[in-house]
Specification:
The protein has 289 residues and is of the alpha+beta class. It contains 3 helices and 9 strands; from the N terminus they run αααβββββββββ.
Length: 289
C-alpha cells in the first residue's frame, strides 16, 4: 500500500513537471513569436529609413556645387545602400544582426543630419554672399556712374579752362599794298599783303615766347608758302605762309606781318587763318580785283 502511494506521488510530480514545461515552452514560443513579429516590423521600418536616407543623399548632391562635398555624399549614399541590402538579406529571427544594423542606422541618421546642417549653413552663406555681391555690384555701378559723371564734368571744365587759356586774335585786317605801302586797288599793283590783328588780353593764358602761324589761302584754296613750310595742327601738318615770333605778357598786343608777293595772284576772295599753340585763334578775308 505504501509502495503504491509513493508511485502515485511520483506520477503526479511528473505530470506537474510536464505541465510546467509545456506552459514554459508555450510562453517561450509565444514570446519568440512576438519578438519575431516585432523584429519583422522593425526590419521593415529600418528598410524604409535606409531607402529614405539614400534618396536624401541624392537630393543633397543636386543642391551643391562643391565637388569634394558631393564625393563625400556619394560615398555615404553607397554605404547606406550597402547596409540596406544587408538588412534585406537578414532573417527576422536573426536578432543580433538586426540590432547591429539598427545601430548602423543610428550612425547613418546622425551623419546625414550633420551633412544637412552643413549644407544648410553653406546655403545660407551663399545667399548672404550673393546678397553682398549684389550690393557690391550695385555700389560699384553707382560709383562707376559717379566717376563717369565726374570725369565728364572734369573734361568739360578742362575744356573750359583750355578755351579760357587760349589766345584770341581779333580786329583782323588783311589788305594788299602797293610799292608805296598804300592799299592797292588792283592785282597788278599789289606788292605785299599786310595782315594786322590784335592778340587780346588774357590773364589765363600762359605767357612767354609764342609762335604765330598765318595761312593766306588764294581763291582756289591753295596756300601761299615759301618752300611749303608746315606746322603741326590736330595730328596733321598744315602749310603756312608767315611765321611770327612774339613775347606775350598776357596784355593786349598788336601784330602786323607781311607777305611779299612774288607769284601770280588771281582776282577773287582770299582767306587768312591765324594759329597759335596748336589752335586756330582767328580768321579773316580780303578781296583782290
Amino acid at each position: 500500500m505504501e509502495k503504491n502511494k509513493k508511485l502515485l506521488i511520483a506520477i503526479a510530480s511528473l505530470i506537474v513537471i510536464a505541465v510546467g514545461l509545456g506552459i514554459l515552452t508555450f510562453v517561450q514560443f509565444r514570446k519568440n513569436s512576438e519578438m519575431t513579429q516585432l523584429f519583422a516590423v522593425e526590419k521593415e521600418e529600418m528598410e524604409n529609413e535606409y531607402s529614405t536616407f539614400a534618396t536624401q543623399y541624392d537630393e543633397l548632391q543636386v543642391q551643391i556645387n562643391n565637388d569634394s562635398l558631393r564625393e563625400k555624399l556619394e560615398s555615404e549614399k553607397l554605404k547606406t545602400q550597402r547596409l540596406l541590402e544587408e538588412l534585406r538579406q537578414v532573417k527576422t529571427s536573426n536578432a543580433a544582426e538586426i540590432m547591429r544594423l539598427k545601430k548602423e542606422l543610428k550612425t547613418v541618421r546622425a551623419v546625414l543630419r550633420s551633412y544637412v546642417v552643413q549644407i544648410d549653413s553653406l546655403d545660407r552663406l551663399n545667399k548672404e554672399l550673393a546678397q553682398e555681391n549684389t550690393e557690391v555690384k550695385s555700389k560699384y555701378h553707382a560709383a562707376t556712374a559717379q566717376i563717369n559723371t565726374l570725369s565728364a564734368e572734369k573734361k568739360r571744365l578742362n575744356e573750359k579752362v583750355t578755351l579760357a587759356a587760349q589766345l584770341d586774335a581779333t580786329n583782323i585786317v588783311a589788305q594788299p599794298l602797293n610799292k608805296r605801302g598804300k592799299k592797292a586797288k588792283k592785282v597788278k599793283d599789289a606788292k605785299k599783303i599786310a595782315v594786322s590783328f590784335t592778340i587780346v588780353k588774357n590773364i589765363s593764358a600762359e605767357t612767354g615766347n609764342k609762335t604765330l602761324y598765318i595761312r593766306i589761302a588764294k581763291p582756289d584754296n591753295e596756300v601761299l608758302s615759301k618752300d611749303n613750310a608746315t606746322f603741326a595742327y590736330e595730328n596733321t601738318q598744315l602749310t603756312y605762309s608767315i611765321k611770327k615770333y612774339i613775347e606775350y605778357s598776357g596784355e593786349e598786343q598788336s601784330v602786323t606781318v607781311y607777305w611779299d608777293i612774288q607769284e601770280y595772284l588771281p582776282a577773287g576772295t582770299y582767306h587768312v587763318y591765324i594759329f597759335a599753340d596748336g589752335n586756330l585763334i582767328g580768321q579773316g578775308a580780303f578781296s583782290l580785283q
